[in-house]
Amino acid sequence: MRAVNILAFGVAAAGLAVAATGAPPSGKGGKGGDDSGPAYEVPTTVFVERQRRTPPRLVVAGNDSSKSQPVYQYENYAAYLHDAVLVSEGHGRALITDRSDNPLPMILVEFWFDTDGKITDTNHVPLVSRPDWGCEALSSDGTRALYYDRDASEVRVIDLADGDITTLVVSDPSQSFGSSCDYKSDDPLNLNGVLHAVVRDSSGARIDRIDMAAGSTSTVYGPTSADLRDFSIHYEGSNIALVAISEDYTIRFGSNFSQAGAAPVSIESGTEADFYCEGTRLLFKGRIRNKRYTLVYDTTTEGTATYDDDSEWTPRTLC
Question: Which CATH number is 79-224 given?
Fold first, then answer.
């Protein structure tokens, strides 16, 4: 059964128990969008939506961003979305921060939706508080949450089934992990996956590949003095099929990090890149006539379409 207890903030998250499978619970859902066409769409996107006179809210939507449905109401105007994952059919998870001053609470937001895409239930659980952030993410299977403890120079992982916290990576205090990271594991019972992360030190920024099973670290891009913002990986099975690198507010693509780093710019103004599940489209934040929009780029046609013009930073696809 899904536990709904709210945990006290702190370093430990003992007692957390969140079911990863099962049918969506019954409940009351929100209605979003205009009156034309279906009232709901099966969610493919998660983003922070601005509101008038009140803090923004976390919403989910399909291809039509106007049909958004709320899953969490932020208490603070400093509203952040770190990651979103589809855990199982009809069950999504998002990792957020809802405060600008210390300590910073990292919160897990869960939501369930039916076959029509209507939200049937939501839940949110504070996981841990920390003095800063970097490398906040959900594992590819949605069973674990990662966060960077800057004071301890450690990337830690929370098992969302039992709340156990484990140190995944211990780093040199002279370097820090950026906000973009990706943890892929084909062994959900053990921490034998691969972490890709933006790492910064005195030589600049780079992207490291940290293989837990092999106990090895290699740099797959950089170091560079450019503004390395973030990256996104599209997998086919366990293999990397496509990579997007956002640097100096431009985005480049390649079949691996080396190719993406050497490729010509495909998106002249873009950051916060994230692939849709099929890998042919990319969600990102871009600029049109000096205004920021959430946009979708098609890697096949190289065309760009506006998705939403009233969302905050860091939209995420539900994959």
Answer: 2.130.10.10
